[in-house]
Write a structure and sequence with these properties.
The protein is an alpha+beta fold. Helices cover 21% and strands 14% of the residues. The protein has 2 domains: 261 residues, paralog of FGE (formylglycine-generating enzyme) (Alpha-Beta Complex), CATH 3.90.1580; 69 residues, no CATH class.
Amino acid sequence: MKRLSFYLAILSLLLIFDSCTNTGNGELIGVRRKTKHFYQPDPYGMIFIPQGSFTMGTGDQDITYGQLHQPKTVSISAYYVDETEITNNEYRQFVYWVRDSIARWMLYDNGITDPPFILTETKKGMIIDPPQVNWKEKIPWKTDQQEIADALEDMYIPEHERYFRRKEIDTRKLYYEYYWVDLHAAAKKDYSIDGNYEDAMFSNRPQGMRDRSVYVRKEIINVYPDTLCWIHDYTYSFNDPMTEKYFWHPAYDHYPVVGVNWKQARAFCIWRTEMRNSYLRSKRGESIVAEFRLPTETEWEWAARGGYELSPFPWGGPYTRNDKGCFLANFKPLRGNYIDDGGLRTVIVAHYPPNDWGLYDMAGNVTEWTNSAFDPVSYNFTWDMNPNYTYNAKESDPPAMKRKVIRGGSWKDIAYYLQVSTRAYEYQDTAKSYIGFRCMQPFLGRNKDDNPARASKVYN
């Protein structure tokens, strides 16, 4: 009896081992993954926008007869979008990250502190690959140690430029360096690199025959907003205290960030992507799932409509006031009277009611950058599924090629620019006191929970 029990135990172990090493008995069963389920949680402060089809463009009279937004039926995938514009406090996190990263590397380069290393075991022994910044280490900004003070001195404004002998961070040195892959250039059949057609003989070469590193682009962007845009935009006006205090003063923490050009907004999205993915890799061991970017103008309009097909405004009606006579957005309602809607310039985000998808300030407050390049007739030559016209303009390109679509209207605009179909543009290397942005994240799908709890960042 004992021997029979022993044989049964051995048999069960063999069956378990066989099931663990089962190759499918020669059948197609796919690749076994470490995780059985993929789950994409709702990103903090973002709203889920379902896929859908709608008529993009004006649904009423084209008042200006500019023919810039001819009606066109399009279909769009699901995605997430920030429920409010990016605020000063949120963008300040980006600026501080760049400042601290530069300071830490300066301390390491001067030999004040030793950076942590990742040790990789190879056949030749342990190697350092690569040196990384220890973000948990506090930077001794106010130290009395002369060696550290000298190492950090380059972070401050030169002594001969200081006012009242005040020591401040030199914002001209806050550069963010990042890399991105130009997929549009890689997808071209002629495989030309920056207009070089010398290798045109490979125009029909199969995929995978070109080193993809040639499509990696390097960008170096100064991330500090243009705090003088309030004066630059309106020469004969007096816009204090916005000029000196708007970005850094705590009173404006939850106001939309302005003075940020299109390149800086894009750099913010890439930094936000890397910050999120670094956390997922280090804390949860998850694969890269987060990707933040600026919404295309199609995505922006679909989100702004809030599910209404032909309504001119995000709140679903044809008027800028509610039934009590109160304005529904921050804009220029009357000639010279900016405060009749409750705000003189920008106001705190989420001050006015959201649209039916829960998005705030899709009309008014600040107009918003989109990912799309501007062309007056782009509706005519783009596809009808996730349409988008993009162009990666170079410094040498003419100004017309540097135009990017802005949407939503701002605190200085009349009601026409608040309409969900109104298109406007600004140049990608200019910063204005009336332009901000919000991010989006593509929806990859989920099979674990279709209705997760949404985290909100709206300030009561």
